[in-house]
Design brief:
Number of strands: 9
Largest sheet: 5 strands, parallel
Strand order of the largest sheet: 4-3-5-8-9
Oligomer: single chain
Shape: globular
């Protein structure tokens, strides 16, 4: 027994020494990160009204934080949008608002950020109108704008607007008791669309419960929240991944190769269909997209209501300012490929479900915009034409953001519509 105690004591000292060594290494790495090589800062910073905002100190951002060569004092056209408009993964001049400026030879000011939606655009309108624009364009991306609008109004997610700012509460939050109860139930069952983590073909991971890959009828499901212990471990893991320099370096150097070997189409073959023909190939992400359009989820129903109210609010205020307002409708990658891929993927239930649910959302939006006399620019046909010609507007992996060819097609659709309306002259 004394011998066993001696071994345990030595083992404890080794563990303690290892822990102290790791803590010292973490501290040294944190100091190096903070005081070593100059940092360009984060791409986005917290903002009390908007939840987050582009960082003015980030390369490619102007002094207000928006992704423009300079902070214009006036502009003919101002464009709101999310990452599809910001131009994710491409240089600033490749984003479609900048391409519109080049096509029309007009000053265009981009006001877009990852995670933004129509509800944010309502709060940004006064800043946009200060530039005295002739035209304001708000993007409507079917991949996430409906859910983002719900999330922002109800202060859900990593970036929340300040509780001191109640303007959207009085404008858009539902006062219907039954709707609020249904939303609360949905959040209790599937908080913050937890299922997205287990439906995302960009990062396939082990699914602990098959119900986490069900894409409809959330209110019919049992609670999908992890157990207390699992939730605690998940929170600790998330904290370390966000804040530990040591773990960040280890992940970057040790696990990149292993992660690259995981192919979503092999790991989740029914969920993540790979499309191939003689000219084009890409990976689709239909389950992930369905969640943000599923009309059986009360949060999506509420998000669509908020989205329409937001565009209506912007249109009315633009009219009072003698400014033309357009909604640029941007499809998901999956719907852009529908005409070309439907014959080969018609037996894929996730794809068919997404095509159908997005078509209904588009139909609802077009009917609403027609009733409200809100002009629309539908970019779907431009992207379909590009795909039909054998040019892929999107990456070959599961990323839903366009490549340069896709942004150019969107820009041409927008510029051609404005020219037809006499705005480009």
């Amino acid at each position: 027994m004394p011998h066993l105690r001696s071994i345990l004591g030595k083992l404890g000292l080794v563990c303690l020494g290892t822990l102290i060594g790791l803590l010292l290494l973490e501290g040294a790495l944190q100091l190096r990160a903070r005081f070593g090589a100059p940092s360009i800062g984060p791409q986005f910073v917290p903002d009390e009204r908007l939840g987050h905002r582009p960082n003015p100190n980030f390369p490619g951002h102007d002094s207000r934080g928006w992704r423009n060569p300079s902070a214009l004092t006036s502009a003919d056209i101002v464009i709101f949008g999310d990452s599809q408009t910001y131009g994710a993964n491409l240089p600033p001049e490749a984003a479609w608002p900048q391409r519109v400026a080049a096509l029309l030879h007009r000053p265009v000011y981009q006001m877009a950020a990852d995670g933004y939606g129509p509800a944010q655009y309502v709060l940004l309108l006064e800043e946009a109108l200060a530039l005295k624009p002739k035209v304001i364009i708000a993007a409507y991306y079917y991949g996430n704008d409906i859910y983002d609008s719900y999330q922002f109004v109800y202060r859900i997610g990593d970036f929340k607007r300040s509780t001191l700012d109640t303007v959207l509460d009085s404008l858009f939050a539902s006062t219907d008791l039954k709707s609020r109860e249904a939303i609360t139930r949905a959040e209790t069952i599937d908080p913050e669309l937890l299922r997205r983590k287990y439906l995302d073909c960009r990062e396939p991971i082990e699914v602990p419960d098959p119900r986490l890959q069900v894409v409809h009828d959330v209110l019919a499901s049992p609670p999908l929240v992890p157990s207390w212990s699992a939730g605690l471990l998940q929170s600790a893991e998330t904290y370390l991944l966000r804040n530990s320099e040591l773990i960040r370096i280890l992940r970057a150097r040790l696990f990149t190769t292993a992660q690259a070997k995981i192919k979503a189409e092999d790991y989740w073959p029914k969920l993540c269909p790979r499309y191939r023909d003689q000219k084009l190939t890409t990976l689709f992400n239909p389950g992930y997209r369905i969640l943000a359009l599923d009309e059986t989820d009360p949060r999506i129903v509420e998000g669509q209501r908020i989205t329409f109210l937001a565009y209506q609010n912007i249109a009315e205020r633009c009219r009072r300012s003698q400014c033309s307002f357009y909604v640029a409708m941007i499809p998901t990658k999956e719907t852009a490929f529908r005409a070309r891929a439907s014959a080969s993927l018609r037996d894929q239930p996730y794809m068919v479900d997404l095509w159908n649910v997005e078509a209904r959302a588009r139909s609802n939006a077009l009917a609403f915009f027609a009733r409200e006399h809100i002009a629309t620019i539908d970019t779907l046909s431009a992207l379909e034409a590009l795909i039909a010609s054998g040019v892929n507007p999107y990456p070959e992996d599961g990323d839903g953001h366009p490549r340069q060819a896709g942004y150019d097609a969107i820009a041409r659709a927008v510029a051609e519509r404005l020219e037809r309306d006499g705005i480009g002259r």
